[in-house]
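Entry
Fold in token form

___
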Amino acid sequence: MTTQFKLAAALILSGMIVAGCQRPAEKTEAPAAAATSPTAASADVHPFTIGALHAAALKDGDIVLENVAGQSPWADTAGVAEVLRKTGDPKIHLSVQPLLIRGDNKVVLIDTGAGGAMGTANKLPASLAAAGVQPAQVTDILISHGHGDHLGGLVQNEALAFPNAAIRMSTAEWAAVQANGELATLVPVIAPKVQTFEPGAQITPSITAVALQGHTPGHTGYEIVSGQDRLLYFGDALHSSVISVERPDFVNAWDNDSDAAIATRFALLGRGATQSLRTYGVHFPFPGLGTFRRQADGFVWVPEVAATAP
């Protein structure tokens, strides 16, 4: 992971639902079976439901970092070591798992993994196939932000990996992606498919964009609601299920605006714990599902199911 991979808080609590995408969606139809069929579980695919929606965590790979300057984004390596001591592993482990959602006559993929970069295994294509979906069946790709472990899988062999999908990201994030010289070869490939939106936009009948400020200029989470069920995909507002949750005050060098990112983390943890909100951590231990709980000295993440070892 390079230094470009860098999440105020009031928008989490007050800006959750605002009208309208900036541009209408391209009409792309997927076979009905692909939109509604349940998925079989495997080592790299974890199916679950959100109301009437069929969802699946799709493993792309793992990022493993030493807790030392130059690798860890947290400058307080001694503080991080103290937090990690209880895990029995001194290394920083960040899983990478895009989220698949099927329903509303759409096949939606939230983020696309690293495409094999950053030490990951490029498992997403196989995980997607195991979930019963072909790349051409994906109708919408929702990008949380423009870092390589989230949009790296958009392009393969200099062509669109998901040829029929609209690629959606916030207006501010698309501007940042276009200005990033390290993404110069990716931008012209994806540009014809990009559709931008403003914070709070209703992306699909079940998915609303949520501004989670601080990590990148237009960093976005996605709240998925079906019936009485809801799930918040919070992107890189929190990286580690241990460090980010138990010490949200730690400065993270990957954040573009540290003060805003810290405020976002505290607000997100507070809302999650107060509402017992089901959440999805793209970098939390696979499959990334769980809730936040208050404890005497702060917060802790409670996984919904036992994490799968890398």
Observations:
- The chain has one domain: 10-303.
- The radius of gyration is 18 Å.
- The chain has nine helices and 18 strands.
